[in-house]
Design goal:
This protein has helices spanning 14-23, 31-41, 43-53, 66-74, 77-104, 136-146, 152-161, 165-171, 184-196, and strands spanning 2-7, 28-30, 109-113, 128-133, 174-177. By secondary structure, it is an alpha/beta fold. It has a five-stranded parallel beta sheet with strand order 2-3-1-4-5, with helices on both faces. It binds adenosine-5'-diphosphate (ADP).
């Protein structure tokens, strides 16, 4: 079974494209929601996070205090690296267990969706990576429509923390263009067919992929 990553800058449409694959029957692992779930529910990870960041990590009712953790970790690179060191291996193990179930069920491939896929070196364990691309101005407009609580400055700050889009395209095996220049569905159908055939390198030269 092939392990295929799917990434893209915030607002690129990565989740929408992953949902199109899911509609074709492809199992999709959403790393970002799964990481949040594990931080809230995995007993061993809860223990490690409490030891690392203090009892305030979970409130009196035992719920993860995201605001506290964000305050502690996102303002301090050392603490952020520490948080990642605890969370990433747990998500990696969870993904591996999930993927082996999918392999046992006879799936030809699965998608691992992650916003910071290259940044977190997740691509190293994967057979191929799909980057979903749209220009920055379009991405910002989409996010402002999707997340009314975010300001343009918030979105720009998030974009600044993500790997440059051109670099994401350069490192990708395949690119899905979600900038209204091409329809998404035919790109996904062609990619799905290529991956089911084994993701042959020749497929990269299809019109919709990077040149
Ligand atoms: P990401 O997961 O990359 O942050 P999403 O998949 O959530 O992005 O897409 C961002 C927003 O843009 C969503 O509200 C989505 O519905 C919208 N969107 C995505 N692709 C398109 C498109 N081709 N045309 C219009 N809106 C789109």
């Amino acid at each position: 079974m092939l392990l295929i990553g799917i990434t893209g800058g915030i607002g690129s449409g990565k989740s929408v494209v992953a949902r199109v694959f899911a509609a074709l029957g492809v199992p999709v692992y959403d790393s970002d929601s799964r990481a949040k779930w594990l931080m809230a529910h995995d007993p061993a990870l809860r223990e490690q996070l409490t030891a690392a960041f203090g009892l305030a990590t979970y409130d009196a009712a035992g719920q993860l205090d995201r605001a506290y953790l964000a305050r502690v970790a996102f303002n301090n690179p050392t603490q952020l690296a520490w948080l990642n060191e605890l969370v990433h291996p747990r998500v990696g193990a969870d993904f591996a267990a999930w993927a082996s179930q999918q392999a046992a069920a006879g799936q030809p491939y699965v998608l691992k969706e992650a916003a910071l896929l290259f940044e977190a070196n997740i691509d190293r364990g994967l057979d191929a990576v799909i980057t979903v691309w749209a220009p920055a101005a379009m991405r910002q407009a989409r996010v402002l429509r999707r997340d009314p609580q975010r300001s343009a400055a918030d979105v720009q700050a998030i974009m600044a923390r993500q790997l440059d889009d051109d670099e994401k395209v350069r490192r990708a095996t395949y690119v899905v263009y979600n900038d209204d220049s091409q329809l998404v569905l035919p790109q996904v159908l062609a990619l799905d067919a290529a991956i089911r055939r084994g993701g042959e390198v020749a497929e990269k030269s299809l019109d919709f992929t990077k040149t």
